């Protein structure tokens, strides 16, 4: 976080494409948790690769960006199978190239972790998610055998899921706040009152910053990262709000429309964090009018990490800088 703020400080007075820096922050953070400190560390106020890894942090970021682009494209061959082999848009070629790069990088990471595990022998302690997954893969009592393909998929899920969603939410927060300067004033007044200006805001301060939390919740209401939650399935015949839903029906939850439902929210198109002050509406799957992380057994497993990263990022950005649109734009 200090390296992130330091990089932005070096750009003070310039126009900044904030998403690039936010993605770098979240990617370096989640990469250290998933892959280990050996690959990505902080030195001299900046991120750097601290091993002979075959990709740099920037290259990994480019691969993740390409991954998100390709899973969202409209590929003609998927809808007209007879044209699939032609790869008219070149997306399949790009997917294959990306898979090759990701496989090379992940195999390099797995091999180094396996070697470290062998060298440690009985003293081995899992220090990151790859260590843990490799332990599970070697467990003969595990109900579902983890293959290398499964390990690749799980690590990619963790890195991509923990990178884009947090960065997008923080970008939306700053976008809304810049359009409402009075909200920035209120948020910084709270920071000055709780934290002061003699030290940086820390994770332990977050519970004492209710207005900051309200800003985050209002952003998640108006700009959910997943407008449609991961598909669910009806496990039995049921009736919901007068509608008969048959067993096996695939169910999509539209959080975007819920967040703009005037029967739930007064003036839903307005950005008003105050609507969450004094109201017991959480984002942990218990308040169905606000479900940014889904609910139940298919809820995002890393919601707690996401909340901490989002709130700490917002707090640092507001504490460190005065934000406005470039060229005095309105």
UniProtKB/TrEMBL annotation:
Its cofactor is heme. The keyword Iron applies. Signal peptide: none annotated. The keyword Transmembrane does not apply. InterPro entries: Cyt_P450, Cyt_P450_CS, Cyt_P450_E_grp-I, Cyt_P450_sf. Pfam families: p450 (PF00067). Keywords: Heme, Iron, Metal-binding, Monooxygenase, Oxidoreductase. Belongs to the cytochrome P450 family. PANTHER family: CYTOCHROME P450 71A1-LIKE, CYTOCHROME P450 98A9. This is Uncharacterized protein. The lineage of its organism: Eukaryota, Viridiplantae, Streptophyta, Embryophyta, Tracheophyta.
């Amino acid at each position: 976080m200090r390296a992130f703020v330091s990089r932005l400080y070096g750009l003070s007075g310039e126009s900044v494409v904030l998403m690039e820096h936010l993605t770098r922050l979240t990617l370096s953070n989640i990469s250290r948790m998933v892959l280990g400190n050996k690959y990505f560390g902080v030195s001299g106020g900046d991120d750097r690769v601290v091993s002979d890894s075959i990709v740099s942090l920037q290259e990994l970021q480019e691969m993740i960006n390409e991954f998100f682009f390709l899973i969202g494209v409209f590929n003609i061959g998927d809808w007209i199978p007879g044209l699939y082999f032609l790869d008219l848009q070149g997306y399949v070629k790009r997917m294959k190239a990306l898979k090759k790069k990701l496989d090379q990088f992940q195999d390099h990471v797995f091999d180094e972790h396996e070697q470290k595990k062998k060298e440690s022998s009985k003293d081995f302690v899992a220090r990151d998610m790859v260590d843990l997954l490799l332990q599970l893969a070697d467990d003969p009592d595990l109900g579902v055998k983890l293959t290398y393909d499964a390990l690749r998929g799980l690590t990619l899920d963790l890195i991509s899921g923990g990178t884009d969603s947090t960065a997008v939410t923080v970008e939306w927060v700053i976008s809304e706040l810049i359009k409402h300067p009075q909200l920035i004033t209120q948020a910084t007044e709270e920071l000055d009152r709780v934290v002061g200006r003699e030290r940086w805001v820390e994770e332990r301060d977050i519970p004492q910053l209710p207005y900051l939390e309200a800003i985050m919740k209002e952003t998640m209401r108006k700009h959910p990262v997943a407008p449609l939650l991961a598909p669910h399935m009806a496990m039995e015949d049921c009736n919901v709000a007068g509608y008969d839903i048959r067993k096996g029906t695939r169910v999509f939850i539209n959080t975007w429309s819920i967040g703009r439902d005037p029967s739930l929210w007064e003036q839903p198109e307005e950005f008003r964090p105050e609507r969450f002050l004094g109201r017991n509406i959480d984002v942990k799957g218990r308040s169905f009018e606000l479900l940014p992380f889904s609910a139940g057994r298919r809820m995002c497993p890393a919601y707690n990490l996401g909340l901490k990263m989002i709130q700490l990022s917002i707090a640092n950005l507001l504490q460190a800088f005065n934000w406005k649109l470039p060229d005095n734009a309105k």
